[in-house]
Amino acid sequence: xxxxxxxYKLRTKNxxxxxxxxxxxxxxxxxxxxxxxxxxVPNTETLKLLSNLFNVSINTLxxxxxxxxxxxxxxxxxxxIIGRNKDGSLNEDYCKWCYADGTYTYSNMDDLIDVCxxxxxxxxxxxxxxxxxxxxxxxxxxxxxxxxxxxxxxxFDKFKKQLIEEINELNIEGMPKVENLNALVGAYVNLEYPLxxxxxxxxxxxxxxxxxxxxxPVFGGDRCFGVLANMDFILICxxxxxxxxxxxxxxxxx
Length: 254
What we know:
The chain is globular, with a radius of gyration of 21 Å. By secondary structure, the chain is of the alpha+beta class. It is 36% helix and 19% strand. The protein has 3 domains: 3-61, 434 Repressor (Amino-terminal Domain) (Orthogonal Bundle), CATH 1.10.260; 82-150, no CATH class; 161-253, no CATH class. It has helices spanning 3-13, 18-24, 29-37, 44-54, 58-61, 109-121, 127-137, 142-145, 147-150, 155-168, 186-189; strands at residues 82-84, 90-95, 99-100, 103-104, 182-185, 193-194, 200-201, 209-215, 224-229, 233-239, 247-253. A 5-stranded antiparallel beta sheet has the order 5-8-9-10-11. Strands 1-2 form a two-stranded antiparallel sheet. A two-stranded antiparallel sheet has the order 3-4.
């Protein structure tokens, strides 16, 4: 799909006239018309405005000429899983799991490999194949090549360590100690919990990346503990396989 077709499709999908779109990105209606006729394409700054307005990548606006991959984990990127900068704009170099709200979530390559191996095993890779592939792939990606330049000097790791200590100090009965927290996108873990008044509620934002983990209970059984947290709260729940029948154990403001 060409840029002219992409802009037309996004504009009409969002119920905007050419005048409406022009006003939102500070151009004339004639400029929008020229884009949609294929006579011109938006400049770089206008592409950024269109990206924020329509919540799509600049790569998508340009007709997806590039095959984007996360420069931290190597995952192929589409607009649904691209990470975001602190200002909410999309960062087309990273996925939501590796880069969230302007923060890199991995500082240890081995930790990332451990997480990736689990997911690759579900796609038919053996653990040995997955681990060998990731050990070869990750050092070629920009994040790891420029780690000293891009890293935050351990600040995020300090935050995770503090968070883990706070969670373990809660002493939830039957829940083992948390050893590590991984990046988890809200849409994948935003369970709906029954409340005492008979209603159900979700506590997360589908588009936000949180830190969390799943733990097997100390005393066994068919329910797992789920732990989710960020700078504002700690949430602990239990659920059956595939997140069925979730129950909220604790929701604590930090």
